[in-house]
# Entry
Amino acid sequence: MRRYFTLLVVIALLLSGCVDHRYNLSVDRTGDAELRMTLDVTQLTNQLYKESGMSRSKFRENVTAQLNERCSKIEDEYPGTKCMVSLQKMTVIQSFEDGFLFEKKEGVPYITYTLEVDRLPLYLVSGDTMLKEEYIHLEGMSKENYDYLKTVESGNGKTVLVIEMPSDIIYAKAGSINAEVDGKKAEFNLAQIAEEPGGIMVVSKELNMFWVYVFVGIIAVIIIALIMKIFRKEKVQE
# Structure
């Protein structure tokens, strides 16, 4: 039964679109980046438990156990990578060092941050383990990656990339595709990018506090000088 169950889940993960993939890429003001990749099989679990011959709770327990096994294998194979499981969600956390460019420009009165992303690591189920396959090249995807993203979309699954910048975003596009922007976050649908490949560019800006402090300091000096001038004038008149 367990062998059948394992085979069932692996095949379903490979072929079904009822799996949500969420990439969260966070970049700080120095350009250090962290990538969180979450695989959510909740929807798939709810569909498959009847075919397993198990109760829903038992089926969920088995899915969670399998995800924990895969988490352990990921951490063993990729030192420095963290993996955690919560219910039917598996999250892989790693520093993001390849596949992007980050630029910080200090101007007056704003600081501008520009992030360009051209590839992302893709985690897929393969046999009894979860392996990091080739990167998703956003400017020109392989047929395998394209087919995988479209399969997820056709099964009502989602493959989403959320980029969080150091400050409020003023521009976020992948080729001609606009992201959904909310403050510091921009959300991209990777299935849409698969249809119209293009590297991602996100720009954010914030006030350059150095120049704000300089301006405030100058104003303060001017005010103090005027007060002293008025005080001296009144003293002379006395």
